[in-house]
Amino acid sequence: MQIELVEGVPYQYLSELQALHAHVFDGSPLPLEKLENKEGLLCLFAMKDGAMVGFKLGYMHPDHVFYSWLGGVHESQRGRGIANGLMVRQHEEVKKLGFQKIRTYGRNQRKAMLITNIKHGFEIISTFVDAKGRHKIIFEKSLVK
């Protein structure tokens, strides 16, 4: 497996990303406009034999914290450390860009991701209910030791 890094909108990977996003998120689309509206978008793609098997997307939040926004691994490739590899690489790249904190949101329905966040040093800092009525957990991690 190799990890490809793209700063900005990943036009060359767009169709693969949209297909994998739909696979991971129960058919939910990822419109191009959502990607184009993210300032400081950073995309990481796990590639195996030339095919995208995982992704991790994030961008600069308005309060200058890096927001780890979306990620997932193809169901057939789970349990192989791909999500961990993407997270480690994302944190390395974000630190190089000068960010001191990284934030992400999680949902109780996606327990594997909650556990992964905690294993990688995230702390639960708050919760909220989003506009769709879903309970979300806010995680943050300091990138400064």
TrEMBL record:
GO molecular function ontology, one term from the record: acyltransferase activity, transferring groups other than amino-acyl groups
Annotated signal sequence range: none
Domain called N-acetyltransferase: residue spans: 3-144
Pfam families named among the record's database cross-references: Acetyltransf_1
Highest taxon, organism lineage: Bacteria
UniProt cross-references to PROSITE patterns, sorted A to Z: GNAT (PS51186)
InterPro entries registered for this protein in UniProt: Acyl_CoA_acyltransferase, GNAT_dom
SUPFAM superfamilies: Acyl-CoA N-acyltransferases (Nat) (SSF55729)
Name of the molecule in the record: GNAT family N-acetyltransferase
Lineage, uppermost ranks: Bacteria, Bacillati, Bacillota, Bacilli, Bacillales
